[in-house]
Design a protein that fits this description.
The protein is α/β, with parallel strands linked by helices and 128 residues long. It is 39% helix and 20% strand. It binds flavin mononucleotide (FMN).
Length: 128
């Protein structure tokens, strides 16, 4: 089973996850030290790098960095070249793909597409 872990600051990413109906794990500022223990997709919004410290702590905890299979970035296209830059940096740093991107809390089409991406990754990870 591919799991989903997400981080949200103003609630847009949380809203996106809620719309998918996926039972995802929320990374919190209070305690980002939680081990997923199985392959997962990380869904994060985009801010200045230091705002992602809890996500970096989470990824550095136990086996999390090894179980990460892909990153989905939420952002705002008005940021042009900086669109989903945190997701891109993390994906590149941990050698996993960007599996999805969306603005704010995503459209219904985004929700549908993301669920398909999760299903496809599920098939891929259970093949091995
Ligand atoms: C201060 C600030 C900086 C942001 N910087 C970026 C950015 O560099 N690139 C981007 O794609 N989106 C950027 N955004 C947009 C947010 O990532 C986007 O609104 C996201 O949906 C917020 O998710 P959250 O409510 O789950 O925290 C920024 C938003 C704020 C308020």
């Amino acid at each position: 089973m591919v799991q989903v872990a997400y981080y949200s600051i103003t609630g847009q990413t949380q809203r996106f996850i809620e719309k998918t109906g996926i039972d995802a794990y929320e990374i919190t500022d209070a305690d980002p030290f939680h081990e997923m223990g199985a392959p997962f997709i990380l869904v994060i919004p985009t801010y200045d790098d230091d705002m992602m410290d809890p996500v970096i702590d989470f990824l550095g905890y136990q086996s999390n960095h090894r179980e990460l299979v892909g990153v989905a970035g939420g952002g705002n296209r008005n940021f042009n070249d900086l669109y989903i830059h945190n997701a891109k940096d993390i994906a590149q740093g941990l050698h996993v793909p960007i599996v999805f991107d969306f603005e704010f809390n995503g459209t219904m089409a985004d929700v549908k597409k993301f669920k398909k991406v999760v299903q496809e990754l599920e098939l891929k990870t259970t093949e091995h």
